[in-house]
Design a protein that fits this description.
Layout lengths: L2 H10 L3 E3 L11 E3 L1 H20 L15 E4 L8 H7 L1 H4 L1 E6 L6 E3 L4 E7 L2 E7 L6 H12 L11 E8 L9 E2 L13 E4 L3 E3 L9 E3 L5 H6 L1 H7 L6 E10 L14 E11 L4 H18 L7 E5 L11 E7 L10 E10 L1 H8 L30 E2 L6 E2 L2 E8 H12 E7 L5 E7 L10 E5 L6 H13 L4 E3 L5 H11 L3 E5 L1 H6 L1 E6 L5 E5 L3 H9 L1
Parallel strand pairs: 3-13, 7-9, 23-24, 23-25
Antiparallel strand pairs: 1-2, 4-5, 4-10, 6-7, 6-8, 11-12, 13-14, 14-20, 15-16, 16-17, 17-20, 18-19, 21-22, 25-26, 26-27
Helix pairs in contact: 2-10
Bound molecules: glycyl-adenosine-5'-phosphate.
Length: 535
């Protein structure tokens, strides 16, 4: 599937729009349109239901080391600034970036790609902003420009090695930056903190400085004690949260994949240190299955364990669930969700203060007088098992998913084209979004075959009855084939047509979006029939 086709469908049919489009748009921000808002809500609701409300705490789930409880939270976006110091985000949540002194362009050090090339006795590293499939052509164009050569002189360019990212290059003076005229205009890489700062109240400067949360997880950690004290949850248990997070990404890209404002669906699962490894394995498999249950194909999904040198400073194990997004080069995958074994890093940090990121979790970073650099809350965030009387700091397993990335993957997977006859019998390309019925924005569309003979009245009654149970759509305009096509593009799994036979035998036609199979159902049973199929 070509990504442009999906992007164009998303705009045309109202799944997603560029934010503030009438003012030229704002990079890294996306609005969800009438169909998109339903799809995203359905994804978040499916997640919440499957992970939290429908979780059966009395039975042992498939592959789980025991029973567990699940509960939820909804925390604020702006939190006490100390949270981010203690969590490590204030000092460590950075990407390396380079600036172009000539064009004022700003690039992520590990994302800008280029290739070594030599001509006229000079060797330079020429860079490109082109998409992967256009990379080679653009590199050649830029290299010819750098050496003041014409297209017919391309054989003078001696390429060296593969296309690699800028972070593999040591000599910035040899880099020919994108859109620049001179060589060597990039600055040395420097850290760029991804948190969006804001100001609280009328206090200017550092005093009123706060941050938009870059993850929902910290709200859960700082409320750990509140949840334990206000409910009867016992370890092992998980706290779930869905909500907005903000990251000032240097180069947002690939549609909604890397945005500056996005939604996360996170679980912090608290367990005893001795069983934490088993829970980590359980959550890796449980979360992978959630995506396949909702329609992502095994062939495009992978569960990838982080190598030792990829692990965050606090993590003793992390696995990513990745999807082969069509905008990535063949064989490459993009992260949908990370499942991390965070040990006791978070609770301990919020108790004791920020730990040394290099030696964590064993040593506390010492300030001048032997105290941690950033003070913790000083609250006791340990847990006492009232059966064994053991007191310990729980270990945390964190399945952390992005709602926008999940939605993008479901959209990519759903986009299908096939050949079907139109109303006149001519074969035409049909675009169909094969979304799982649980997440489809509209569950059923109801059409009277013609706008007469009492058909609209029957169809409207069915529509009204359906609306009480699930999102339905009524359409009486145009040829019925065209109405079907519009619903196929919207991902509506079932279309119901009221026709001449309905008036004789009180049955309607139900058409399946994917198989195109049609069957008749009694008018009185049709709401139940569709309801059972889409829930
Ligand atoms: N609490 C851990 C945490 O936030 P993360 O890997 O940085 O971990 C978790 O983020 C998930 O959030 C990612 O797997 C991805 O789905 C989503 N996410 C992160 N940054 C994003 C961005 N800039 N745009 C869209 N989704 C993003």
């Amino acid at each position: 599937m070509e990504m442009e086709k999906l992007v164009s469908l998303c705009k045309r049919r109202g799944f997603m729009f560029q934010s503030s489009e009438i003012y030229g748009g704002i990079n890294g921000f996306w609005d969800y349109g009438p169909l998109g808002v339903e799809l995203k809500r359905n994804i978040k609701e499916a997640w919440w239901r499957d992970m939290v409300t429908a979780h059966d705490e009395l039975s042992i789930a498939d592959g789980a080391p025991g029973t567990y409880e699940m509960t939820g939270l909804d925390c604020t976006i702006i939190m006490h600034p100390q949270v981010w110091k203690v969590s490590g985000h204030f000092d460590l949540f950075c990407d390396k970036m380079v600036d172009c002194r000539e064009t004022k362009g700003r690039y992520r050090f590990d994302q800008l790609r280029g290739r070594w090339v030599e001509a006229k006795g000079k060797r330079i590293f020429v860079t490109t902003l082109a998409e992967t499939e256009d990379e080679a052509e653009d590199l050649q164009r830029r290299a010819l420009k750098a050496f003041n050569l014409r297209g017919k002189d391309a054989e003078q360019l001696a390429w060296d090695g593969d296309t690699v990212s800028l972070d593999k290059i040591e000599d910035m003076t040899a880099v020919f930056a994108p859109e620049a005229k001179e060589i060597g205009t990039l600055t040395e890489p420097r850290d760029f903190n991804l948190m969006f700062p804001t100001t609280i109240g009328a206090l200017a400067g550092e005093e009123g400085r706060a941050y938009l949360r870059p993850e929902t997880a910290q709200g859960i950690f700082v409320n750990f004690k509140n949840v334990v004290d206000s409910t009867r949850v016992k370890i092992p248990f998980g706290i779930a949260q869905v909500g907005k997070s903000f990251r000032n990404e240097i180069t947002p890209r690939n549609f909604t994949f890397r945005s500056r404002e996005f939604e996360q669906m996170e679980i912090e699962f608290f367990c005893h240190p001795d069983t934490s490894r088993k829970w980590y394995e359980y959550w890796r498999d449980r979360r992978m299955k959630w995506y396949t249950d909702l329609g992502l194909s095994d062939e495009r999904l992978q569960l990838r364990d982080h190598a030792e040198d990829e692990l965050s400073h606090y993590s003793t194990g992390t696995a990513d669930i990745e999807y082969a997004f069509p905008f990535l080069p063949e064989g490459e995958y993009g992260e949908l969700e990370g499942i991390a074994h965070r040990g006791d890093f978070d609770l301990r940090s919020h108790m004791e203060g920020k730990l040394d990121p290099n030696t964590c979790p064993l040593e506390v970073e010492k300030g001048e007088n032997g105290k941690p650099k950033y003070k913790g809350s000083g609250r006791d965030l340990t847990y006492r098992d009232d059966q064994t009387n053991e007191r310990f700091t729980p270990h945390v397993i964190e399945p952390s998913a992005g709602a926008d990335r999940a939605m993008l993957a479901f959209l990519c997977e759903a986009y299908t084209e096939d050949q079907q006859p139109d109303d006149k019998g001519n074969m035409k390309t049909r675009v169909v979004m094969k979304l799982h019925p649980r997440i489809a924005p509209i569950k059923a569309a109801i059409f009277p075959l013609v706008k007469k003979d009492g058909m609209p009245e029957v169809a409207r009654d069915i529509y009204r009855a359906m609306k009480k149970r699930f999102p339905a759509f009524y359409d009486e305009k145009g040829a019925v084939g065209r109405r079907y096509r519009r619903q196929d593009e919207a991902g509506t799994p079932y279309c119901i047509t009221v026709d001449g036979q309905t008036l004789d035998d009180q049955t309607v036609t139900v058409r399946d979006r994917d198989t195109l199979e049609q069957w008749r159902v009694k008018v009185d049973d049709v709401v139940e029939e569709i309801g059972g199929r889409v829930s």
